[in-house]
Amino acid sequence: MAKRQYWIYWQLLMPGSGRRLWQLIDHFGSPQEAWEASETDLAQVSFLDRQRAKTLVRRRETLHYDKLDQLLRKLQCQVITVEDEQYPALLRNIYDPPFALFVRGKLPNLDKIHLAMVGSRKASPYGLAAAESFACELARAGLVIVSGMARGIDSSAHQGALKGRGATVAVLGCGPDVVYPRENSLLMKQIMEQGTIITEFPPGTPPTAWHFPSRNRIISGLCKGLLVVEAAAKSGALITADFALEQGREVMAIPGNITNVKSAGANKLIRQGAVLVTRPAEVLEELGLGDSTPQQPDLIENKDALTGSEKIVFTALSHLPSTQEQIISHCQLPASEVAVALTMLEIKGLIRVLPGKMYVSAGL
């Protein structure tokens, strides 16, 4: 059996057990020696006892790589081991990288900077709009947007990256062939066409609660930075932020309404030292890229041709979404004049309309 298959075998046998798998390697010296160890020798490992070692040996004997290989070919799913060149270097260097990754779609572009975007599953219209807007503009700027394909902020981040015609990576807490949540079936297909599906869990693995904290270390581990868009005080996004800090990543957060409990976690992160960002350009600056992405010439030309009311309305907008009522209040213009200005600005490509009739600036 080839050396790389031992990495894959252990990943099949103990998916989501990164730290324990590395303890095995530390104990035996290599995945092959660990695989060939006797029940007695396995029982000497710190997290195993005689009964657990017996169960492990019994399960080990049921694995057949040929059957897995056939299934992976059918799914058009690749397997990358921690020793392969295609394995992301940033992820390889975290404390407990997965032994192997199951990948569908395009292999990750390791030359591009990856940014994780996470937040609440039960996000507000503000949070959803902000996630989509930031992801769209940052994907256009060349960043790879990484998230977990969960409901809420994750899905909006992937959708924004796709709309920006950029790359996006979805890290799953289940097998690469399992759609979770079910309503994201189309989104998963679109991600595979334009980006990447990655998981440490083998085909057929259902989503289970404990899988997601394990998944979160991969989301942050793939990236140079993490952006928390909206998160409650006890959100899985904060677990990802903890992993990001542990891994030495840049942690940023978009501020939220202080009266909204869904923003409490993101606001707390800012209070604890996370970088507050209100524009995609600030994310680029924090990642060391500067505000270097040039605006499109046609957008600059359109800005120069704005009428008086269009300039006022455009100046009132940012990458944090606003309702038409908020814009009217800020600009102190008649509702009909603001409505016309918004329509013209959208036609000129200077603003975008997000779900829930929320308006944002279209430029970095």
Automatic annotation (TrEMBL):
<comment type="similarity">
    <text>Belongs to the DprA/Smf family.</text>
</comment>
<feature type="domain" description="DprA winged helix">
    <location>
        <begin position="303"/>
        <end position="357"/>
    </location>
</feature>
<dbReference type="Pfam" id="PF17782">
    <property type="entry name" value="WHD_DprA"/>
</dbReference>
<dbReference type="GO" id="GO:0009294">
    <property type="term" value="P:DNA-mediated transformation"/>
</dbReference>
<dbReference type="Pfam" id="PF02481">
    <property type="entry name" value="DNA_processg_A"/>
</dbReference>
<dbReference type="InterPro" id="IPR036388">
    <property type="entry name" value="WH-like_DNA-bd_sf"/>
</dbReference>
<dbReference type="InterPro" id="IPR041614">
    <property type="entry name" value="DprA_WH"/>
</dbReference>
<dbReference type="InterPro" id="IPR057666">
    <property type="entry name" value="DrpA_SLOG"/>
</dbReference>
<feature type="domain" description="Smf/DprA SLOG">
    <location>
        <begin position="78"/>
        <end position="287"/>
    </location>
</feature>
<protein>
    <submittedName>
        <fullName>DNA protecting protein DprA</fullName>
    </submittedName>
</protein>
<dbReference type="InterPro" id="IPR003488">
    <property type="entry name" value="DprA"/>
</dbReference>
